[in-house]
Amino acid sequence: MFGYDNLQAQSAKTDSLEKLLPLTTDTSQQIAILSKLTWQFRYSNLKKALHYGLRNIALIQQSIYKKELPQANGYVGVIYRNLGDYSQAIIYHYKALKLAKKHQVLIQEAYSYNNIGDILQRQNHFSDATTNIKRAIDLFVRLKNKKGEAYGYLRLGEVLQKQQHYQKALKAFLKALTIRKKMDVKQADLSAPLHRIGVLYSVQGKYKEAMLYLSKVLRQYETKNDILGICSLQNDISAIYLQQNNTKEVISQATKTWKKASEVTAKPIMYRSARLLQKAYEKQQNYTKAYYYQQLYINTLEDFLNEQRGNQLDALKYSHQLDKQQVALDLKDKDIQLLQQAQKEHRLRRGLVYALLIGIFLLACLITVLFRGNMRKKKANHLLQNRNQEIAEKSQEIIVQNKELQAQQEEIRVQHDTIERRNHHITQSIKAAKTIQEAILPQETRIKQMFEQYFVLYRPRDVVSGDFYWAGRVDNTRILGAIDCTGHGVPGAFMSMIGFALLNEIINTKKITHPGQVLTYLRQEVKKALRQEETHNKDGMDAGIIAVEDQPDGKVKLEFSGAKRPLWYITKESESVEIIDGSRVSIGQAYMDKRVIENRTYIFDKGTLLYLSSDGFADQNNVDRRKFGVKRLTELIYTISNKDLSEQKQALDKVLDDFMTSTEQRDDILLMGVRL
Questions:
Q1: Distance (Å, rounded) from C-alpha 185 to C-alpha 189?
Q2: How high is the mean pLDDT of the chain?
Q3: Do 445 and 429 fall within a single domain?
Q4: Is the distance from CB of 674 to CB of 666 less than 8 angstroms?
Q5: Measured between alpha carbons, how far is 650 from 54 in angstroms, rounded to an integer?
Q6: Considering 396, 411, 437, which residue would you say is the last residue of a domain?
Q7: pLDDT tens, 566-617?
Q8: Which GO terms describe its molecular function (predicted)?
Q9: Contact status, residue 57 vs residue 94, Cβ threshold 8 Å
């Protein structure tokens, strides 16, 4: 079914553009050729597409054609999405949105909203994804852009499908298909809606209907040289054959898919093909080949995750540069204060000079009167002339000083304007970092699906935070964690993003659910990520993680592990908050003795209250510099434990606000509570 030979004839146009590029000297034509090459290679050769896309952005930035920047950044965002690097993809789509608004390019603003929604749904942020996609659809309708409107409904259908709203998803896909059928024949690309409808039926187990739609898609993908589309389609068809136990067809199709996807380094497609081949050979009881493809699947997936982690660390280094710039600006503020003090002293000296002038003037008047009364006294007349000469010299000095003061005032004004502009740019960059950090934190809807009653009290000290929380589910096990990273603000945010990415890999990818093992792996990975054996870096984090699993007898099994953080709990019989201390190990710290992170297991009745936190709440001081303290905090929690969790949060917020009156927050604050 592949027909890969048909794709070779479609590369002639691309080859001619590549040959034309070095011969073109006109900047506008170079930009046009680079844009076409980036877009044409977006499926067939991702490395080339990324090369041409980044080269295009650099060329536009040095030219007068700045209105082309939104589209150029959007293209690079699509390439990173196809590579599976969602962290880089969303950065470029946000850049494209900002530039589209700046240059008032409405069509690119609409595409940016749609692309941001696409990335957010791939990261399971469904509410934010839906909001952005609907904004895109509204803009496309206003612009009467049917192609974009259909594109928006495709993305909306994908969000609904992931939420298992299958009827609504089908309605959105059919809407996109209807719009595209009514378009001009040259623009009517039906492959995307047909493919998504086929996959939707497959997810529901309706394989006959799925194959009916998927069989219509291949020819359209071949026509536009969409290698990623062909590979993704063949994996979807192979998955259906696997469900029907047609292992011979699975092996035939998935082998071809692996080969073609590896040519364009499409690793998400590659590891899916390897997984299908592993399962097919297992069904044939050919365990040698099944093991081979299992190792191929694991190695490809690890390569993909390592690439993503490397890009996230690059983004953190970029944020660290912004923090250094902020420090430089703080030093500039001190320079301004010194200049203002100098200006004040100049004004004081100028006042003294004026007073001296008045005194000299009065003295001159007196001398004049004396000279009129005693014209014969030559010595007195000579003295008067000398005094007048002194006055003239001092007046000239005052004029020179005034000019110097005016020049200094102008220099101070210019420096102040420069610092104001730099402050604005840094503030905008930190706000963008906050948006990215909020995007990776678990949505509260995810926690609500795990625990009917919960609260999250989360207060970053600065715009971004070094504390973060993690929530997820693996089979029947619900996992919740509160992590306190070294530092706060931008440096703390670096560690929080590293910690969040590593927890995703450990729990979601490696399927490790015992909290003690999770923290042990996290300790090892942080050591590798920060190269602590080479740099002797001591950054890290303290953490508390719980894993909860319902038992057949109606009770709840709880596993807890802490790295210098405790678990607080309250049962129906408790007379105070009871404490399970964490291990005396901080992640990122080296110890002379061989310390291990312990895993503890308990059985609790339903209704038991659990609390995880960082040390921010307890360490907060009031105006008298007295800390709130762990004892006062646990007594407060026990006092309000008869309230609903939402009312507990309100009470904690009020007590904290009252305690912090007339003082600043000293650290990031995180406190979570759940009821089993």
A1: 8
A2: 84
A3: no
A4: no
A5: 49
A6: 437
A7: 999 999 999 999 999 999 999 988 888 888 999 999 999 999 999 999 999 9
A8: phosphatase activity; protein serine/threonine kinase activity
A9: no
Amino acid, res. 7: L
pLDDT at 125: 94
CA geometry: angle 126, 446, 88, nearest 5 deg: 50
Is the same domain home to 483 and 377? no
Distance set, CA 36 to CA 14, 110, 187, 465 (Å): 9, 20, 16, 41
- In eight-state DSSP terms, residue 185 is T
Adjacency order of strands within the sheet including 556-563: 467-474, 477-485, 541-550, 556-563, 600-604
Look up residue 641 and give its amino acid: S
CA distances from 82 to 52, 226, 273 (A): 15, 12, 16
Q: Extract the tokens encoding 244.
A: 């029907």
φ, ψ at 163 (rounded to 5°)? -85, 5
- Dihedral (Cα; 172, 175, 181, 186), 10-degree rounding: -60
558 and 506 both lie in a single domain? yes
The percent of the chain in helix, strand and coil, each rounded to the nearest 5, is 70, 10, 20
Answer whether 250's CB lies under 8 Å from 240's CB.
no
* Tokens encoding 377: 């006294």
Locate 268 and state its tokens: 């998400």
> Can you list the pairs that 441-446 forms with residues at least 24 positions away whose Cβ atoms lie under 8 Å?
441/468, 441/469, 441/500, 442/469, 442/470, 442/471, 442/472, 443/124, 443/125, 443/126, 443/127, 445/126, 445/127, 446/124, 446/471, 446/472
Q: What is d(CA 635, CA 267) in angstroms, rounded to the nearest whole number?
A: 53
Alpha-carbon Rg for the chain in angstroms: 34
Q: What's the pLDDT tens digit per position in 487-520?
A: 877 888 888 999 999 999 999 999 999 999 999 9
CA nearest neighbour of 300 among 587, 84, 517:
84
In which order are the strands placed within the sheet that holds 609-613?
453-459, 669-675, 609-613, 567-570, 578-580
Contact 350, 402 (CB under 8 A): yes
CATH code (residue 550): 3.60.40.10
Nearest to 493 by CA among 379, 322, 631, 348: 322
| Greatest mean pLDDT among 174-183, 394-403, 529-538 | 174-183
Distance CA 485, CA 200 (A): 41
C-beta atoms surrounding 621 within 10 Å? 17
Helices (H), 163-246: 166-181, 191-203, 207-214, 218-223, 227-243
Q: Do residues 455 and 284 make contact, with C-beta atoms less than 8 angstroms apart?
A: no
Element (DSSP H or E) covering residue 576: none
Residue (of 563, 580, 489, 559) closest to 526 by Cα position: 563
Q: 194 with 177: CB under 8 angstroms?
A: yes
CA 509/CA 512 separation, integer angstroms: 8
Specify the number of domains making up the chain: 2
Answer yes or no: is pLDDT of 271 > 80.
Answer: yes
What residue numbers bound the domain in which 568 lies?
A: 441-675
What is the DSSP secondary structure assignment for residue 5, as one 8-state letter?
G
The half-sphere exposure of 76 on its side-chain side, counting CA atoms within 13 A, is: 24
More confident position, 384 or 228: 228
Residue where a domain stops, chosen among 393, 411, 437? 437
CA atoms within 13 A on the CB side of 397: 12
